[in-house]
Write a structure and sequence with these properties.
Length: about 300
């Protein structure tokens, strides 16, 4: 048993107002065999009792405290403290299960990979199990990239990185406030990452309803950060399929912008979607029909009014 423990991996937990959940997250990492000194919690300016909870683990984990800066900067701050060859980022209100960390580490070492991916088990607010999502086939990184951009993703909890590789590509894009975990993988693959996948264990992605996470709403700054982040990697995409898949990402941002009333930003994102080769509409049949009649902006503005 001891030989299978993840001795070469650190886990970075960015945490903002996570007093209700962070102890369970830390215990989850410890139960997976991660040595306490390799668990790094970045307290991102919490105003609740997070500091008190972390004090109870003072002899078993490392803690960095900083003014609130958002998820990407909190992750990068944790990355700077990592001393092991491999690392993961872990949301403070989720859990690990089934030996996923040890399995990822073993597969990363065996295949000499730069990024490894495991499964995500979605858990509903009532505790029942939702869909279990496996990552795409890693055999062909270019096809993996197209699938990833098309929405076949797993959450950041199940991404293991070779620490030096992640530092080499610049870590997380600090200015991105949404979809940053998607963009960093895209950037890694475009930088030539070798990929690995394991189906052993999973990260439990827990839907806690309105629980606080290190995340932002659909403000214009958030949408702008996503559009600009994807624009920065667009020119490096290698196939029409990848560009069209990125177009779908732009389309989703256009839809959010129009619904919130940010017309100019919505038109910019939609123009980028069309330039990438995505011509249709994403969504339900009803959405597609209404967009065909009224156009995306009018349809989403109407939908936004219904939700207010």
């Amino acid at each position: 048993m001891t030989a299978s423990l993840p001795r070469r991996t650190s886990v970075v937990i960015p945490c903002y107002n996570g007093a209700a959940f962070v102890a369970a997250a830390i215990d989850s990492c410890l139960s997976e065999g991660v040595p306490g000194g390799q668990i790094i919690v970045v307290d991102d300016g919490s105003t609740d009792a997070t500091a008190d909870v972390l004090a109870g683990y003072a002899d078993r984990i490392r803690v960095r405290r900083q003014a609130n800066a958002g998820a990407s900067k909190a992750r990068n701050a944790g990355l700077a403290l990592v001393e092991t060859p491999y690392m993961l980022f872990f949301d403070a209100d989720d859990l690990y299960d089934g030996g996923i960390i040890a399995a990822l580490e073993a597969e990363m070492i065996r295949s000499r990979a730069d990024i490894g991916f495991g499964a995500i088990q979605n858990v509903r607010p009532d505790g029942s199990l939702g869909r279990r999502v496996r990552p795409p086939d890693p055999t062909d990184p270019q096809r993996f990239l197209e699938a990833w951009l098309s929405g076949h993703t797993v959450q950041t909890n199940s991404h293991m990185w070779r620490s030096a590789f992640l530092r080499g590509i610049g870590g997380y894009r600090a200015e991105m406030k949404t979809l940053e975990e998607i963009e960093v993988v895209v950037r890694g693959i475009l930088a030539g990452a070798t990929l690995a996948v394991t189906d052993t264990g999973q990260s439990l992605y827990i839907d806690r309803g309105n629980a606080d996470r290190v995340r932002y709403g659909n403000s214009p700054e958030v949408i702008r950060s996503a559009v600009d982040g994807f624009a920065a990697v667009e020119a490096s995409l290698n196939t029409h399929g990848q560009r069209r898949a990125l177009g779908k990402r732009y389309y989703q941002q256009a839809r959010s912008a129009f619904r919130q009333g940010y017309s100019a930003l919505g038109h910019e994102a939609l123009a980028r979607a069309r330039a990438c080769g995505f011509r249709g509409h994403l969504g339900t049949r009803g959405h597609r029909i209404l967009c065909g009649i009224f156009g995306l902006e009018r349809k989403e503005r109407w939908s936004g009014r219904q939700l207010r």
